[in-house]
Design a protein that fits this description.
The chain has 752 residues and is an alpha/beta fold. The chain contains 22 helices and 30 strands. The strands form 7 sheets. It has a 7-stranded parallel sheet with strand order 11-12-10-13-14-9-15, sandwiched between helices. Helix 12 links the parallel strand 13 and strand 14. Helix 21 packs across helix 22. The longest helix is centred in the last third of the chain and has 17 residues. The protein binds adenosine-5'-diphosphate and zinc ion (ZN) (2 copies). The site of one zinc ion has 8 residues, from loops.
Length: 752
């Protein structure tokens, strides 16, 4: 008799166990690890689904009492046992339930739709096309048509999916163009290469010496079956993407597949087009805008060997390629590679696990590598490859640091330093473009009383309320009809014109948000065309893309925005970047605040002067002596890194020392405190704890209450990750072991 170890398909932490079921003889052939099965469960023998994770011939308890599998669930795409093992590894490292881990690596099945794909083909010659573009160009309502025709002018055939998702062209626009016979809609089950490579565009790129050398070195390691992992540290615009594509091409020629992770925000038409142009429809993409069904289709396409390259955010890591040959992670330093949802996995680490299982390499790339990655280089876990020059020969920008305290002394109360003001005027007169960047952490419109200092806070959260007028303004003086909104829980209340504490009328709204910058810029530079990009202006489906393409098309002189504008976009006409308050993120209560700041400044500076014209960057700051600011201005990553890593060593922070942070949340403040104490005590008494285990707290979290949940934190440090994992498991066992603790939510995060 054979027995199957099965995890049940119910995401409840209490059920996070493995159950043994007997495999009926006639099913033996069909049951294997990764198979989904229907089993009788619990006292009532409810039929539920489970995943087989292992098969043994030894029963783990009285065989008489072991129930049998009812049937195999064949509708499910068979799951690679590799993926199941990966789920187990994720659970082990990041905690949480095996179900959450399985759901992460295996997408939820949606009704499999018709597997045909629609393609749009251009049906017009160049002259007709030109006439149409001219005609539609005159009419704003026809802009979607222009987008579609322009894209088809470059690639005669494109998939409808790409056109809808990436270009944002609607079904009705496609239909109406189809009626005029300018385009034809074709359905194909499999279309080998619908995207024509534009030879002119591609032919022009020949790797420069540095790019060639790095590509060749990595390719030769791959050919020698050396499974190294690499970090490509290349300044922005140094041509990292071209290097990835060269290596990817080589891996594909060996008949293997490639996963390329890029941050969702840089998953733009521009980026994807480069890959489509080189690899045709063997490439697919994933992004959060795909529906669950569409995502599942990509999963199937990968399984069916319809595609060889998957580009997407961290979830693309779980593309079921059975002959994986390479994983590339671009912009490796990006925070979005860490999952915020359980299991809180880090895609960079999981990529290394998956690569090891698959016998392939990982390439990380960044202009400002994470401290972890560079530390891994120093420890020999990653091989460093450097690209020091910009590919197109453009020089790095000239960077100025402006001390805002000095500006104030000079009597300049505006948000623009003298230098920045002068340079803005210069660019406006030359018709060159400007980006003004404001750190998001300064994004606030909090309301306070100038008489008593009272700050209006959310009654449910330990954060200040944000002021919103009906027309969306968030600054200035009190307006009738304005509301206060909590950005954490969504709570709203009417804004009052008097202080709720002292009844004074001196209520004022503070804010240094993007709107305020926009208003000040509009006042100071009348006639300048200004675009603003932030959470409010990018709400629609393609909000981002619309603003960026308008700016790229030269529809504005100044682009004002938060973090969003500094990530990976290439605007050749931008020759000035202003960073309005560089140190707003330095005050953050977080051991990586200096790293975040440095990285933002470097990325922002990298936006200037990407093409032939040289760029200038103005960093305005209250902390002109801070090493994040100084080294970002010098664009000296290694100097920054050396300072930062010695600080981490000194204070015992990751990546030098492992850190387990435990966030405990509960509805009653005192009880939550008690439970947090109990958890800390459990950690102390865990058998893995040795004298090197350092337990700090519990103490109040930076934001001590969100959504009526009180928040306590415990920090636990140890040099050995395995000990932290063990300690976490002890705490998790206590938490999940008794009904008494059902009301608490605990998040664990191990940083190494
Ligand atoms: P990164 O990924 O490092 O920011 P990219 O690969 O996007 O850099 O390259 C920046 C720009 O330089 C792109 O427009 C790219 O097409 C161009 N480029 C890169 N390598 C070369 C090359 N060898 N010759 C000409 N242009 C190049
Ligand atoms: Zn007051
Ligand atoms: Zn709130």
């Amino acid at each position: 008799m054979l027995y199957a170890d099965i995890v049940v398909d119910i995401s409840h932490e209490k059920l996070d166990k493995i159950f043994q079921y007997a495999i009926p003889k006639d099913m033996e052939e069909h049951i294997h690890p990764g198979k989904r099965v229907i089993i009788p469960f619990g006292k009532g023998n409810r039929n539920i689904k489970g995943y087989v994770v292992d098969i043994t011939d030894t029963p783990s308890f009285d065989p008489q009492r072991i129930k049998a599998i009812i049937k195999a669930d064949d509708a499910q795409v068979p799951i690679d046992s590799k993926m199941i093992s990966l789920a187990y590894m994720i659970k082990k490292r990041y905690g949480g339930t095996i179900n959450d881990a399985l759901k992460t690596v295996i997408p939820v099945k949606k009704a499999v739709r018709n597997n045909t794909t629609k393609y749009i083909r251009l049906n017009a010659d160049d002259t007709t096309l030109k006439e149409l573009l001219e005609q539609y160009g005159k009419d704003k309502r026809m802009s979607s048509r222009c987008i579609l025709l322009n894209a088809l002018a470059e690639n005669e055939v494109m998939s409808e999916e790409f056109i809808k998702n990436e270009l944002g062209v609607s079904e009705s626009v496609i239909k109406s163009l189809e009626k005029t016979d300018v385009i034809a809609v074709e359905s194909k089950i499999r279309y080998r290469n619908p995207i024509k490579v534009n030879a002119q565009e591609r032919g022009s790129i020949i790797l420069n010496d540095d790019q060639r050398r790095i590509a060749d070195e990595i390719i030769s390691d791959i050919d020698d079956n050396k499974m190294n992992n690499y970090l490509i540290h290349g300044v922005t615009g140094s041509g990292k993407t071209e290097v990835y594509m060269e290596i990817i091409n080589h891996v594909l020629q060996k008949g293997k597949q490639v996963i390329m992770l890029i941050p969702e925000i840089s998953l733009t038409y521009q980026t994807v087009k480069r890959f489509y142009a080189k690899f045709g429809d063997r490439v697919s993409i994933m992004n959060s805008r795909l529906s669950a069904g569409e995502r599942y289709d990509q999963y199937l396409r990968a399984k069916n060997k319809d595609i060889d390259v998957m580009i997407g955010p961290r979830s693309a890591l779980f593309t079921p390629f059975d002959n994986l040959g390479l994983i590339v992670i671009d912009e490796e330093h990006e925070g979005s590679y860490k999952s915020e949802m359980p299991p809180r996995y880090d895609a960079r680490q999981v990529a290394c696990m998956l690569a090891k299982m698959s016998g392939c390499s990982v390439i990380l790339g960044s202009a400002s590598p994470s401290v972890e990655a560079f530390y891994a280089v120093q420890q020999g876990r990653l091989i460093l490859k450097k690209l020091a020059q910009r590919a197109k020969g453009a020089s790095l920008p000239q960077v100025y640091i402006e001390d805002l305290r000095e500006e104030l002394k000079k009597g300049n109360k505006s948000i623009f330093s003298e230098r920045l003001d002068g340079l803005i005027k210069d660019r406006l007169s030359k018709g060159e473009q400007i980006m003004l960047f404001i750190n998001r952490r300064g994004y606030s419109g909090f309301v306070s009383c100038r008489a008593c200092g009272h700050i209006i806070k959310c009654p449910h959260c330990d954060v200040s309320m944000t002021y919103h007028t009906p027309d969306g303004e968030q600054y200035g003086t009190y307006k009738e009809g304005a509301r206060l909104v909590c950005h954490y829980c969504g709570y709203e209340m009417k804004a009052t014109s008097t202080c709720p504490k002292c009844s004074s009328k001196f209520i004022s709204i503070f804010g240094t948000g993007t709107q305020k910058v926009e208003m000040m810029a509009a006042r100071k530079y009348p006639g300048a065309r200004i675009l603003r990009m932030d959470k409010d202006t990018t709400k629609g489906k393609d909000g981002h893309a619309k603003i960026l393409s308008a700016f790229a098309a030269g529809d504005a002189d100044i682009l004002i925005g938060t973090q969003m504008i500094v990530k990976g976009h290439d605007f050749p006409n931008v020759t000035l970047v202003g960073i309005l308050a560089a140190d707003l993120s330095l005050g953050a209560n977080d051991f990586s605040a200096s790293e975040t700041t440095f990285e933002l400044l470097l990325q922002a500076a990298g936006r200037a002067g990407r093409a032939q014209r040289p760029g200038e960057v103005v960093i305005q700051t209250y902390k002109p002596d801070h090493y994040s600011v100084i080294n970002a201005a010098k664009m000296d990553y290694e100097a920054f890194y050396n300072r930062e890593i010695s600080a981490r060593k000194l204070f015992g922070y990751p990546p030098v020392v492992g850190l387990l942070s435990v966030l405990v949340m509960g509805k009653n403040e005192a009880d939550t405190g008690k439970f947090a104490n109990l958890l800390a005590q459990t950690a102390r008494q865990c058998e893995a704890a040795d004298e090197n285990l350092l337990i700090l707290g519990p103490s109040e979290a930076t934001i001590s209450k969100i959504n009526d949940y009180y928040r306590k934190v415990i920090y636990i440090k140890h040099a050995d990750e395995r000990i932290l994992i063990h300690v976490r498991d002890c705490m998790q066992q206590l938490h999940l072991g008794s009904k008494d603790y059902n009301d608490y939510i605990v998040h664990y995060d191990i940083l190494t």
